[in-house]
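Dear V.,

Thank you for sending over the compound details. I've combined the ligand you provided, zinc ion, with the protein sequence from our construct and run the structure prediction for the complex. I'm sharing the raw inputs here so there's no ambiguity about protonation or stereochemistry in the SMILES, which I know was a concern on your side last time.
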Amino acid sequence: MPNNKNASVIANEKINDTKVAKAAKIILDLQRQLKKYISKGYGPFLAAVYDSNGNLIAKSANNVVSKSCSNNHAEINAIKLAEKKLGAYDLSPYNLSLYITSEPCMMCLGAIMWSGIKAVYYGVPSDIVTKTTGFDEGFKPNWPNEFKKRGITVYGQIEMDAGKKVLQDYVTQGRTIYKPSK
Ligand SMILES: [Zn+2]
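Below is the predicted structure of the protein with zinc ion bound, written out as structure tokens.
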């Protein structure tokens, strides 16, 4: 059962406590690993693709800065690795879930939609990411509802306090807030 830290969880289906508990475990672990990635120069986001038996298929942190590539977000990197590993541009038959330390940005929503990922679980919501870091997550009108129409389950705001702390530390450490200048 989820603890009260997950009382704020939102979903685009009737909330399933077993799914929340499983996702909370994975996302807390990703938040812990993310601190190590940040110390190595990665951006403050980590994503992992799992199959329905709980096997890790692919995992990646954001490496926009180190690879000089604006679309190297954690979600896109992880999806690309999963597709390469499985030799498939359509992941639908594999019934895969994407776990992310923060809510996907507008670019990653498109990448997720095109990939055939069946479920998305995220930690920190975009408004808190933006407030905490200054990253612009984009405009995303009612995307969980749009995903529902396409058969993609969404759960969010899982263990978000732990995730917010990692983002705050990233800022406190004076690391790069990468975005286009105006
Ligand atoms: Zn993104």
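A first observation: The chain has a mean pLDDT of 95.

Warm regards,
I. M.
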